Structure formats: C-alpha cells, structure tokens
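Ticket #4471: structure output looks truncated?

Reporter: J.K.
Steps to reproduce: submitted the chain below (402 residues) through the standard prediction queue, then opened the result file.
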Amino acid sequence: MIGFNEIRKLARVTPSKIVLLVIDGVGGLPHPETGRTELETAHSPNLDRVAREGICGMLHPVSQGITPGSAPGHMSLFGYDPVKYQFGRGIVEALGLDIEVGPGDVVARGNYCTVDDSGLISDRRAGRLATELNHELCDLLNEGVKVEDIEIALFPGKEHRFVIRLRGEGLSQEVADTDPQHEGMEPLPAQALDSTGRRTALVANSFIEQACELLKDSLPANMLLLRGFSQRPDYPSLRDIYRLTPACIATYPMYRGVSRVVGMDILPVGETLQDEIEALRRNYDSYDYFFVHYKKTDARGEDGDFDAKVKAVEELDAALPALLDLKPDVFIVTGDHSTPAGLAMHSWHPVPVVLSALYCRTDEVAEFSEQACLRGGLGQFHAPELMPLAMANALKLNKFGA
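Returned output as attached by the reporter:
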C-alpha cells in the first residue's frame, strides 16, 4: 500500500465532495432457518440502487481472520494502518465526550455491568442502563471513591458507558482490561502490561474495590468493567495527509473521538438518523469529506436480535434518499466490522462495500448484501485502500511518477 508521504505529494484540493456512510456492524451471517443474512433479509431498495449504480466488494478491516474493535475498524476506513496506528478505547471515548485529557492523564472506557451472587457477569451492559441512572452512579462514585495522590473523575456517556480519567504522577496506559468480554466470567483484576503500568494497575484496582462496595445494591448496575486504558496519541491528520476539510457526523462519543484523533471537525448533531442527515445538509458547503455514522445495526447485532437488526437496516434505507438528494461526487457505504446477530459480537468476517461515483466502473451487483458484494468488481481488499480509491474518484489525487 502507498504510504502517507507519497499521498501527501499526490493529494490536491478540489471542490468535489466525498461522503462515507458507515453502517456499524453491518455484516452478518445466515439465519439458520432462512439461510439469509440480516442484509439479505432486509427490504432495502435504496441501498440496492446504490449497489447497482456503483462498484462493490468486500473489505477486511484489519486482516483475514482478525476480529476488529471499533477504533481499528474506523481507522482503517479513514486510510490508516490499524496495526501501526493503535490506541485504547478510553481515549476515543474521552475525546468524543469533549473531556480534557492532559499530558500524563490516563483514561479508560467503562461499562456498568451486572454480576450475580457468585460474582459472575450476567450482563456486560447492565441491561443497557438508562442514561439518567448512569449520571447518578457516576456522581455517587465521584463523591465516594478516593485514592491517595490521584485525581479520579468519572464522566457519564450514553446508557451503560462512562469514561474514567486518572490524573497524577507516574501513570501509564500499559494496563490490561478488566472486561473479559463475555458473560459467565468474573471481572478481571487490572494487571500491568509492563513495569511502567504497575502504579496505574494498583490505582485501578483500588478504585474498583471501592466502587464495588458502593454499587453492591444498585442492580442492575452492581459492578463495572474497564477497558482501553490509554493516553492521547499524536497522529498525522486527514488534513495533513489528504488535504481534505473533513467533518464527522456521529451521535455516539466513541466515533466522534476516533474522528477527533485524525483531525476531523465534530459537527453538532441530535440523537436520530434524521438529525444526522440534516447536519450533513446544513454543513454540506463547508467541508469536502464527511463521515456519517449509523449505530443501530451494531447495537442490535450485539443484542443477538436478528429481526431488530433487519429493521435497523430498513430504517437506514428509508432515510437514504435525503442523503442521495445531495448528490455527493463520491458516495461510499460500508461497515467498520461485522456484528452477526447469531454471534452477538464483533466477528472476523469481511464487510460489504459499495463506491458510487461518476468515474467508477460499475459491475453486475444488483443488491447491497454479503453474497452479492462477494461478486463485485472491487473484489476483497484491505480497508485502508478504500481512502485512496475515494480520493481518486473525487479527482483529488495527481498522477504518481513521470
């Protein structure tokens, strides 16, 4: 793959617009009764229209057989090698919530969860806790937990999610997650990944011990899990590499945070898909690259609810004409990873992609689905290669070489 140093030399500014629509967790697996995936089951005439008018394929966000987290999945789509440009979940959640993260601070993503009488996790998301209760619990822990010489602050996110920020001397991001990622297991202790993480692990375990006592009667949120201990990275921006004016339209902090890491402006937006499309319309003349994120497909897949994920696809499809009316010069639809309802988690399966542009060669694909896109003209390829394709079709790359 061509590197950023060469891309910088080739990139040029043009008035053309690129819109990347990420249907989070879009890829699925066949239902055992019908043999059809969620995409293949959904009635999605507008997505199918885009597939007919564009060129399709399948993306591997990281590599064959590797299950991506949300951050590497999105970094790939933005053109970054997800193995080289790594960071923890905590920093993207923190930046997405506009939390100040200073030099030396360590942040982590937290989930309130439910543990049973045996101490085993029965629900990693505490029933997708009401956001209002999340605020109350964060207030409780901010008041009640004290660790000597360390400033600890909790910031509530949506539903069961929060961010914890540790501030003090000698902290490090080299700490393993306490979230085992599966129900039926005990929460893990925080463990240092190397000698620099020992103090931070001790601080995290002291916090967890005190929090456990304070939360013990707070069903369904009677425990918490931490993952993605991280500090703020310093990576090249999309503006620097591609000479773009990029903007993020996303309702969840996680995705705003990843976008902030790569230098996007974060546009104000409401809570609904319609709000997102309206934000795109309102800001369309001010930017030339838009990342638009749709979350429901991933959430319903993680819930293991096949029918609800089908409905989420159909909801997205019904809203699509308002976006298509803007007539972006390059329009891309894909996902950051697969979240099959049958697995109820992220998976290693490649995700379908379609690129529609005036100068793209079309193929014979007539629907946006896994089976159809497997036959597409783009074939199977590594997700970071999508960004140069978008730039080329927007006429934003000069010729390479003599």
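Triage note (M.O.): checked the attachment and the full token line is present. The chain has 14 helices and 13 strands.
Status: closed, working as intended.
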